[in-house]
Structures are given as structure tokens and as C-alpha cells.
Amino acid sequence: MSEGEGTTFMQWRERAQSEVAQERPKLRGVMITAAAVVVIGIVVGAVVLLMS
Question: Is 17 buried (19+), middle (13-18) or exposed (0-12) by CB count in 10 A?
């Protein structure tokens, strides 16, 4: 790999990391919501199984 490609990759990686840092609060909210939905689904499923 030439130095030019390495520099380009490093610049791309830094840009990707900065974009992730900007999107992180939104992503964290989505992950928390998804986790809550999964937990609620498990609880509802357990209640349904216990009642049947």
C-alpha cells in the first residue's frame, strides 16, 4: 500500500469517526428504544406463557 492510500484511509477513518460522534446521541436513543421494546416483548411473552 502506498503512502497516498494510507493517508486517504486515515482521513476517511477520521471523517467516519467524527460523523459517528455527531450521530451518537441519536443512535443511543434508538438503541435504548430497541432494548426497551425487546424487554417489554420478553415480559409480555412470559406473561402470556404463564397464563396459558
Answer: exposed
